[in-house]
Amino acid sequence: MGPPIRHHSGSHPDHLSEEVRQISDPVLKMLHIIHKIIFISQLPPTLTPNPRRKVIERFKRALFSPQSTIVNLKSELKKVVAGSKELIDINLGVGEACYLLRQASREETALQTTGEKPANTGFDPNDTDIGITYEQMQNFIESVLVESGYYDMSPNARHKTIPLGPIPNSPQRTGGRRMLSYEA
């Protein structure tokens, strides 16, 4: 490769083109995780129970609970983005919540190894290995997004909104009232 190319533009200092690199914005990564979590929470219900979605929904509720602060939200999202191996504290007690975590973990493991969901094994009250890491939450989020077709949509289709109705192009007379025209 030849010598680095120097760029000079008027009053701006010289810089080497090899020194310019892509900047990774951590805030953008956290916003992307929030977007994914909210997308999942707005999906229509499935015909069969989906414990991964329920765990993600509980995580979302914990993130945005009245007791949560902005600092806490940032800290939790940073851990999800980094795939931390720490356990998430989403105030889960015994019973259904523990069962959901176990089922979601089993389902995720089965999906990664066999590509199929496991049969529902039921709740085992003696199962003490309960907890979910930020890394597992990240995997749950991604697997639900793949299942829902999130990555099959084009970026442009994901950001379009459906119009509320036809917008008339010219003023019309209707029953003595004049309708306004709005340009699209």
Automatic annotation (TrEMBL):
<feature type="region of interest" description="Disordered">
    <location>
        <begin position="161"/>
        <end position="184"/>
    </location>
</feature>
<protein>
    <submittedName>
        <fullName>Putative serine/threonine-protein kinase Nek10</fullName>
    </submittedName>
</protein>
<dbReference type="GO" id="GO:0016301">
    <property type="term" value="F:kinase activity"/>
</dbReference>
<keyword id="KW-0808">Transferase</keyword>
<keyword id="KW-0418">Kinase</keyword>
